[in-house]
């Protein structure tokens, strides 16, 4: 029988005792589902755009937050693809500001980037490749302009997810471009906290766990099996790390994958065109959870971009973990493994198929998939 335990607090922001690659559940199907659901999410926006009256359009349109990536980065960027291919950086962020801070008893603040995917859509837009960057990967951060206009000096060997919390979206894009040599055509950020209202708008989300979340550090307690979560419980679900699997960040990513899969499956079940009121509630919550580059920061542009991906069969999307190895100075962190990572990025730059040799990850448990 479905049931839900009353969630308390999750300790998801304590630095990981293990790098992302050591956890369980980082297999091929989970990563593929995340990329698939991102594409489905864009399609949902396209449907929502056509299902509501124009008089509601401006209200939904104003929800979407835009970031002028080009202006923030300037000319210090890789060249655009010489083909019609596209590269998209998708971040799953977790804001703890404002009212959301109350859900964590005020113990944390700001926002963090928990999930990062570089999605490459080759020329013709009939397939896609998603590269997942582990949050514990040590990277060299370039000099960046922060969100408040200050200059952040370059730094070596910083955790990838710290770039977002210190300097915001544009610096994260610049860091990815520097490490990959690939220009990001678009940026999409999905705020997990923003899904709270979305979940409530659709009447809850059903998730199924193969193993329990024991919440031994005051967090969410759920037994193995099927549970119906409301918005607040869903937010705690995606923040949970301790008490699930081996307690690594990859375990939390696995839960986030489960949640996104369940959430967007639930949205697909809704009668969007048959219920304008529900359509608006869902579109309103979803657009409030989005931040994009300025070129996508409108409902019409997002819907147009979503429609341009109609030729992609989500079942054929290839998801690859950035090949990583354990850092020799800090075994709790990982670094990009060479030459595998270099070959991976080169294949995407050239709009070519990724060779099998570029998918092998020396770090145990972080095998490219």
The helix count comes to 11
Helix content: 25-40%
Cα-based radius of gyration, to the nearest Å = 20 Å
**Sequence of secondary-structure elements:** HHEHEEEEEEEHHEHEEHHHEHEEEH
Tell me what the structure shows.
By secondary structure, the protein is α+β, with helices and mostly antiparallel strands. It has 11 helices and 15 strands. The chain has a 7-stranded mixed beta sheet. Strands 5-8 form a two-stranded antiparallel ribbon. The chain has a two-stranded antiparallel sheet with strand order 6-7. Strand 14 and strand 15 form a beta hairpin. The radius of gyration is 20 Å and the shape is globular. 49% of the residues are buried. The N terminus and C terminus are likely disordered.
SSE topology:
Elements: H1 28-51, H2 54-63, E1 65-67, H3 69-73, E2 86-95, E3 111-121, E4 129-132, E5 138-141, E6 144-145, E7 151-152, E8 155-159, H4 160-167, H5 169-180, E9 186-191, H6 195-201, E10 205-209, E11 225-229, H7 231-239, H8 249-269, H9 276-288, E12 290-293, H10 299-308, E13 318-321, E14 324-326, E15 334-336, H11 340-349
Parallel strand pairs: 1-12, 2-9, 4-13
Antiparallel strand pairs: 2-3, 3-4, 5-8, 6-7, 9-12, 10-11, 14-15
Helix pairs in contact: 1-8, 1-9, 1-10, 2-9, 4-5, 6-7, 6-9, 7-8
């Amino acid at each position: 029988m479905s049931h839900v335990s009353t969630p308390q607090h999750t300790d998801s922001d304590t630095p990981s005792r293990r790098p992302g690659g050591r956890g369980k559940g980082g297999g091929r199907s989970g990563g593929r589902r995340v990329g698939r659901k991102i594409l489905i999410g864009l399609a949902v926006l396209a449907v929502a755009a056509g299902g509501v009256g124009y008089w509601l359009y401006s209200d939904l349109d104003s929800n979407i937050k835009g970031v002028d990536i080009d202006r923030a980065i300037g000319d210090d960027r890789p060249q655009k693809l010489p083909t019609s291919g596209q590269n998209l950086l998708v971040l799953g962020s977790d804001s703890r500001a404002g009212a959301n801070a109350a859900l964590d008893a005020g113990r944390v603040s700001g926002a963090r980037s928990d999930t990062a995917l570089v999605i490459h859509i080759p020329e013709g837009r009939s397939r896609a490749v998603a590269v997942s960057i582990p949050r514990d990967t040590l990277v060299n951060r370039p000099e960046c302009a922060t969100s408040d206009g200050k200059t952040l000096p370059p730094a070596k060997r910083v955790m990838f997810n710290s770039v977002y919390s210190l300097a915001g979206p544009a610096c994260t894009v610049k860091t990815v471009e520097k490490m990959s040599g690939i220009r990001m055509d678009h940026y999409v950020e999905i705020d997990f906290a923003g899904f709270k209202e979305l979940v409530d708008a659709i009447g809850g989300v059903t998730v199924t766990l193969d193993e329990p979340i024991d919440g031994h550090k005051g967090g969410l307690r759920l037994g193995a099996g099927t549970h119906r979560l409301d918005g607040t419980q869903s937010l705690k679900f995606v923040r949970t790390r301790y008490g699930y699997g081996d307690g690594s960040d990859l375990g939390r990513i696995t839960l986030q994958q489960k949640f996104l899969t369940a959430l967007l499956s639930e949205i697909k079940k809704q009668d969007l065109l048959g219920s304008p009121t529900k359509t608006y509630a869902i579109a309103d919550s979803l657009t409030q959870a989005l931040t994009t580059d300025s070129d996508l920061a409108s409902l019409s542009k997002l819907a147009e971009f979503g429609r341009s991906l109609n030729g992609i069969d989500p079942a054929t999307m290839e998801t690859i973990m950035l090949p990583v190895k354990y850092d020799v100075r800090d075994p709790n962190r990982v670094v990009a493994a060479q030459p595998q990572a270099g070959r991976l990025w080169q294949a995407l730059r050239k709009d070519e198929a990724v060779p099998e040799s570029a998918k092998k990850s020396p770090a145990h448990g972080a095998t490219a998939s």
